[in-house]
Design a protein that fits this description.
Blueprint (H helix, E strand, L loop, with lengths): L5 H8 L4 H9 L8 H21 L8 H20 L2 H5 L7 H17 L1 H8 L7 E2 L4 H8 L12 E4 L4 E8 L5 E3 H11 L4 E8 L4 E6 L12 E3 L5 E5 L7 E2 L7 H4 E2 L1 H4 L2
Helix pairs in contact: 3-6, 4-6
């Protein structure tokens, strides 16, 4: 059979989409998740937070009952991801193993979950006054049965409506801590509507917390922002060590004592 064009040939193979055919030839469309590795990652996360919990001040430490509830919520999140095949379909990031992408997602998810009590004490509000901004992605997946509603960004955005405060939760695990420029841009938009934005950055490598008011961070000069290879050259600004005002074993002071700005650290 004569094929007039490469397109006709590919159609004869059974492919009308070039990208799909390339994946087929390279066998990159075959996804085999190492569930044994993921189970080990889950066990590591529970062990990790169990160790962290032992270091916290008594007012912040989760009780046995609270920690069991925390583990249950993490397990339910994993079961949802697995049940809806989200790990196979969505957890792919420029060639990185899906198991590694899953681990980073779940680790961030558990950070926001574990430190909920700490966050409420920082802002002097009850737990139920900390509202997740938008709908819970996993809950929406469950209710809709549609994985398109799921986002891979695990760290939570929170808000305190009565105080017009928006909160970005971040975590660091290697002692190097940064804020993305996009966070500052978002904060500037919210500032136009009289909302303040704070980044709460938990440095789990050093057992410290930085509470940073980024409401006006977008005004930081361009030369303060650098392309960060860790985030595919997205522009970031480093969180200086002196901005971490709280250590996990201490009593949480009030917000005014904790909150700093990146600009002040450079003065």
């Amino acid at each position: 059979m004569e094929y007039k064009t490469p397109k006709d040939y590919r159609k004869a193979l059974g492919f009308t989409n070039q990208v799909i055919l390339k994946k087929y030839f390279k066998a990159t469309d075959i996804v085999c998740i190492n569930w044994d590795l993921i189970e080990k990652e889950n066990a590591r996360l529970i062990d990790m937070f169990s160790k962290i919990n032992k270091t916290m001040h008594p007012n912040l430490k989760l009780t046995d009952e609270e920690f069991n509830d925390f583990k249950t919520q993490a397990t339910e999140a994993y079961n949802t991801l697995k049940g809806f095949q989200i790990i196979e379909k969505l957890f792919n990031n420029n060639g990185r193993a899906r198991e590694a992408v899953y681990y980073n997602w779940m680790r961030g998810y558990m950070v926001a979950l574990y430190f909920h009590k700490t966050i409420s004490l920082v802002f002097g509000v009850n737990d139920d006054e900390l509202e997740q901004l938008g709908e819970d992605n996993l809950q929406k997946v469950i209710s809709d049965g549609n994985i398109d509603s799921f986002k891979r960004e695990a760290i939570a955005d929170l808000q305190i409506v009565k105080k017009n405060i928006h909160i970005e939760i971040q975590a660091g695990f290697t002692g190097q801590n940064d804020i993305k420029r996009s966070k500052a841009t978002d904060a500037k938009v919210r500032a136009n509507h009289n909302w303040k934005t704070y980044v709460l950055h938990f440095d789990l490598f050093n057992g410290k917390l930085a509470v940073i008011n980024i409401t006006n961070l977008a005004s930081l000069p361009n030369d303060k922002w650098t392309a960060n290879a860790k985030f595919e050259d997205v522009e970031t600004v480093a969180i200086a060590d002196n901005l971490f005002k709280y250590s996990f074993g201490d009593t949480i002071p009030d917000l005014d004592s904790l909150a700093v700005t990146v600009e002040k650290s450079d003065e």
